[in-house]
Amino acid sequence: MDKQWAGIIEPGAPPTDETQLLWWLLPILIAGLLTLYYRQRPRPAMRRQLRHLRRRLRDNRLDRRNAGFTIADCLRRGRATTRLDRLDFGTQQANWRAFLDKLQHAQYRPRPPSQSELDTLLEDAMAWLRR
């Protein structure tokens, strides 16, 4: 029986084409997966700002009329490195823009949004950041 078919590789045998291809592609694949993972993580500054806004809303120290704009502005700005135009989320970017429009829509209503509507918006924001 041939040694190659038996699954035995001789110590001095040259690597096959498949093995060389695997060793070339493995680091590229790992680097790509790490890049995707770290790009999707929410930034700590944005988490802090959302926590702060949520606390102010609970304590009623934030005017409800401006709350939608303030939260949307906070989420959009983040830090200079997390600006929306610099993020590349593909299909998520459309969801992000729709989410910000939903937040900003609360400001232009004739009546201020209710506390339950603001809670819903904040929960949506926190859910988006946890992704």
Could you describe the 3D structure shown?
With about 130 residues, this protein is an all-alpha fold. The chain folds into two domains: about 15-40; about 45-130. The protein has six helices and no strands. It has helices at about 5, 15-40, 45-60, 65-75, 90-105, 115-130. α4 (about 65-75) packs parallel to α6 (about 115-130). Mean pLDDT is about 65; it is low at about 80-90.
Write the layout of secondary structure elements.
Layout: H1 3-6, H2 17-40, H3 44-58, H4 64-77, H5 91-105, H6 115-130
Helix pairs in contact: 3-4, 3-6, 4-5, 4-6, 5-6
Short characterization:
The protein is an all-alpha fold and 131 residues long.
* H and E string: HHHHHH
Report the average pLDDT across residues.
66
Assign a percent range to the helix content.
Answer: 55-70%
Q: Classify the beta-strand content into a percent band.
A: under 5%
Task: Give the tally of β-strands.
Answer: 0
| Oligomer kind | single chain
First CA to last CA: what distance? 53 Å
Q: What's the structural domain tally?
A: 2
Keywords: Membrane, Transmembrane, Transmembrane helix
Transmembrane segments: 21-38
Protein name: DUF4381 domain-containing protein
